[in-house]
Amino acid sequence: MLQTRRLPSAAWRCTAQAPTQLYWGRRRWYVARSADNKRGEMDISTIPPERIRNFSIIAHIDHGKSTLADRLLELTGVISKTGKNKQVLDKLKVERERGITVKAQSVSMFYEYKGERYLLNLVDTPGHVDFSYEVSRSLAACQGAILLVDAAQGIQAQTVANFYLAFGQGLEVIPMLNKVDLPTAEPERAAKQIESAFEIEASEILHISAKTGLGVDQVLPAVIEQSPPPPGSLGKPLKALLFDTWYDTYVGVVCLMAVKDGSVRRGDRIVSSHSGTKYEVAEVGVMYPEQTPTTLLQVGQVGYVICNMKSIAEAHVGDTFYQDKHPVEALPGFVPAKSMVFAGVFPIDAGEFDRLNESIQKLTLNDSSVSVHKETSAALGQGWRLGFLGTLHMDVFRQRLEEEYDTNILVTSPTVPYQIKYCDGTSKFIRTPADFPDASYMQDHVEYTMEPFVVATLIFPEKYLGAMLELCTTHRGELQNHTFIDELRVMLKCRLPMAEIVTDFFDKLKSKSQGFASFDYEEAGYDASDLVKMEVLLNGEAVDALAAVMHKSSVVTAGREIAGRLKDVIRRQLFDIIIQTAANGKIVARETVKQLRKNVTAKCYGGDITRKMKLLNKQKEGKKRMKRIGKVELPQEAFLSIMTRSGNGGSGSDS
Amino acid sequence: MPEYTAAPGVYSVVIWLLPEYHYRYHERITGALIQELRYSLAPHKDKELRSIYFGGGTPSLALPGNIGRIIDEANKLVPLTNNAEVTLESNPTSAEVAKMRDFKLAGINRYSIGVQTLDDKLLRKMGRLHTGAEGLAAVDRAKTLFPGRVTFDMIFGLEAQTLQQWQTELKTALDHADRHISIYQLTVEPGTPLFRDQQAKRVVLPSGDVQVQMYESTVDICKDRGFRQYEVSSFATHQSAESVHNKGYWQGQQWLGIGPSAHSRFTDPASGQRICSVRIPDTRQWALQCERTGHGTGKALVVSDADAKQEAVVFGLRMLDGITNAQFTAVSGGESLASYLCMDRVRHYASEGYLQWNAQAACLAPTRRGMQVIDTILLEIIP
Predict the structure, then answer these.
(1) Mind listing the domains of chain B with CATH numbers?
(2) What pLDDT, in 10s, does the model give residues A15-57?
(3) Which CATH code fits A341-411?
(4) Taking CB atoms and an 8 Å cutoff, what residues of chain A touch B276?
(5) Residue B86 CA to chain centroid, in angstroms?
């Protein structure tokens, strides 16, 4: 049975769709145990840093990262070759379903090379742009990175982003071309792209097929040869970087650490540089692929530490730990994850608030990148304002909340964090449109408003250049440059307001390029922008949960669209419902849902009673799912109709 | 309040005669009906029968002698009250009109005719074998035999019908009407051929707005002619002309259904439980089971108190007189109407002119305006 490290809560284990159970086979123990090792802990102290490699695989979604990881684990006997190992590291249901990696994983392997035994730690990274924060965290524990590129698809936008992320952290980048066995593979062309984009010698590039195993035996030797061993010294006092955590119901917080200097073992007293709190180490070990206790963790090694930490809030990712009484200079740590997309989450049934509260708490235990604030909406009652790293992150969170915790929620349309500069010099971040000041207040008190921008990288075949340029300009984009990465493919960089990409940008990108364009972005600060609040009024009453902040230029189109969409989803009631959208105190659009004038069953006699009552009860159930705003009943779709995006924005797979 | 509120223990019997009855196993089915009647009425011997209704679409095709046998048998088992209502549904075809006198002799005292529409083309499309003129002639003929006790059905909202066409048709129909008429809006049920035709746009029905106008002008025209809309689709010139039998359904009284696919609602004297049941729909299967066991019940369920209360309100508010607290408490086990209903919503709809809540008389009734949208209102006032 797979004791998954990412499935700590009982709630998850109980779900019917727990991951496929895998047969792990007999482990091969490469390491001898000393006579006094009564606990049966694995002894890895004999492996010096020179024979340790910490590396990760970075790739665009679908370029075969998880499949390569499966092959490497099989090759080193960590998992058995049953032929059933499909994305072993993607343990969440949502990960398997969507083919994405949300949470980083780590696994240790032992490998004989030139007569020497090596300890190789593969630190997996999420593949999606939303999770680039997690990528950089994981990369901080590595010295090398395999840059995996699909030989048929060539370099994609995310390849570029991930390359620069790894390159920027000083990692040795080892390029490899995957899927070379495919008939559509063009390894020479892909190699040339790598050469021109990253200035890497094409002759050094390995050609492999993770699916068939072709060339996979060359991968680990290349890692050992090209990736430097971890720096650091065993003689120095302990210095360990906390780079990931998760919560386990039985032992509390499990910390994933990279030991930079010295060593740590059970019974040690370690101190957090961040808080000064002391902890006694209860267990150390490596992920092999599950938690496997070791006698110690020493310089260069990556493993887990359990130290009676009760709350995930204590585990400050990026923190440096040292031995009690032997303080060391703290590592620079990480910039905390920034929420870039906010959405309101409300229980459909107000009576579910407490249960939902508990579910959100449980889920955020293992996803500290979700920011949580209580929010009260006049229209929707008590709920939360949740901040996410991106729209995919939001979709994944919602899906997990609904599936793993069986909760019925209403998610309002996403918004980006706007900034308001007041005349008195103060400024404020706006997470929810309800907080955005009214037009009259703006005039007297607000100097200007700002919105976040991103720099987007788009890579696509040349023939879509016109369509892509148009897409960028219609989304208020500002073209920075475009370059040909080979004869046929263009890399385009443009600066876009973040708000534009949280709506339907990704869907449009895919449809306008027939699926051939790829897209990635990085944050690019704030710029002044002419922002207005679009309010929705139902029978003259503003509905806070339907408000949206947008650029002045979008007001007319969006106002009409929103009013039109609301008209389609609001059912007729016993009075006329006037839907208005307004910005800057002016009505932009108006629609009317006409009064329902007749609703009565014509024929109702003895034989019709059962059917009539069934129908009535069905309708009553439907009514329960409605939100009542004043006199007006709003179906859930009303809240979604404010979102212009359709489906999920930018998921894919990175198997 | 209507003069014939149910005294406990007054029953109605519905005799359901499906079309196949008349073409096959004629005598055998009459035998099965009588068997089922005996079996079903036996536990209720000490009660009275307030009405018998021969329905199911085509009872007028039956032999009057057989109808007479069934009425006599019922009367023998549970005596009919003095003013019991014995209705027969009929089609206005010449063959059936010819038997009208014999039906009267057999014991029928109220005659219901499926005129439907006066438009011959639509009647043909609906598969009816009569014309509009025959429909009206049948009404006229019935009035001479059952004076003051004739009713007929009309339907509006039919294919390509205009508001004016309907108004004209309705006025003509009312010229011939006796003291009662049932007027239905065409309802397109999902799964029916009409539904498919409408979806495929092979049939164009009047728009929603026109249907509303048709309904409203129906109520107005009937009112002008002295017909009160005592229920959504039922109109009568006087309270004494209202259908005793149908009001039994809307007032939550007890009835026993006899014949294939007939429904029943009654309190089982043995257990005191309220039972709803339905007979086997297939005529042959039903008859076989009657012969074997004495009854053709296909399914029987106990009606919970919660369901009974809900039904009492849902059906009570189909009538302009609404539901009284006394009627409600008869099924609620003592709970009052005011404690059951969402009274804040009731008061809201009363203030908006949709409902009338009379606290003194403890009676809840829809206004005309409320009756027109009662299905919407029910969703909010029922807990």
Answers:
(1) 10-249 (3.20.20.70), 315-381 (no CATH)
(2) 223 222 222 322 333 333 444 556 678 888 888 889 999 999 8
(3) 3.30.70.870
(4) 609-610
(5) 13
